[in-house]
Write a structure and sequence with these properties.
Order of helices and strands: HHHEEHHHHHHHHHHHHHH
Radius of gyration: 25 Å
Largest sheet: 2 strands, antiparallel
Amino acid sequence: MEVVNERGFLSSLKKLTQSESFAGVLLLCCAILAMIVANSPLGESYAALWKSKVGFDINGIFIGMSLEHWINDVLMAFFFLVVGLEIKREVLFGELAGFKRAALPVIAALGGMVGPGLIYYALNAGTSSEHGFGIPMATDIAFALGVLSILGKRVSISVKVFLVSLAVADDLGAIIVIALFYSSGVSFEWLGIAACIVAVLVALNKMGVKSLKPYMLLGVFLWIAVHNSGIHATIAAVVLAFTIPVAPKIDTISFMDKLKKMVDKFQDAQNKKDTILLHGDQVEALHHIAVHKTAVQNPLVRLEHALAPYSSFLIMPIFAFANAGVTIGDNIDFGLDHVFLGILCGLVIGKPVGIFLFTFLAEKLGIATRPKGVTWIEIFGAGALGGIGFTMSMFVTNLAFSGEHALVATDVAKISILIASLVAGVCGTIFFIVKDKLSHH
């Protein structure tokens, strides 16, 4: 009985961790835990931990960074690599493939960035905090998927696909915003080195090199070059993702032919066995099957699937725990410029309004059409959920502010993101629940 219960528990645990909502729930738990720890007696130790230096000395020269920078610049590069791979896959084969399919979510994502950005900038123009306009532009796909999973059948498949596609296009927009507006002191020498490395990566792709090892090795050098160029280093991960090959080493027909030969060889060797041990020919056949199994997989998808669990269940939670912990004390000035109001109104109002207006105009101008069965009310509801902007918003916050009020502005922005994302999530959830109940009357 105990064994059955244990198996049932493990099965339930596996289903939970594989569900779309788990990554969002884990992210939220880490953010809440960070806030609790930061405002507990452990607060000083928590803050000091991220500032501690991690690296090594060579002849008295320290090579390394603070733990905070290791997380935000190095670990998050893997997150951006996964995002880049996802964008490339969607552009080539998914909901962003082709102009007609990509037009609506891309235009909607643009509206979902312009609306919040304009609201924030209008409220903070001329202040020391105006550079934070990029903070409310992002949509957190993990949290959005979590809410959609909770809503279940109240949200149609078409609306879910629209929102996920919008979030992917939104990620690309956020990456462009980071590259254009949140890079400083560009070194053209290092940028030239980065360009040469990218040229080599493209050449490897064109030459038909399918092994991921040379791409990942060159990716390390690309990260170093971009990091030293003044452009944020995580952009290197996105560029690397775009150069990863899609085509496998062998096609599926060749794989099936080889597989059949190996299975026949394995079967023939079965008659030669005289013990329970596998025959040498069987071991060799299994080895070749394993090799061909890797060769038939698309390198891009294989890398994405390998990194995605680490990104969702390790990197993003660590990032949340390291960045969401804000000490709420006397130094928190919610009246600093209009940072709080800009982010709150940007995510809660700017997102749904911007997404709705741009989508409406796109259809009226004949540029794009809504997915079949998706109503304008559902577009607005999806826009409300698009106001959940945690991970990328937090990331931009770390880059946005400078000057004497930078630390205070950063703390205010992070609290604002948490509150605004919570409000957007609750509003979006209530919106779809009410719509579902009204549709059944």
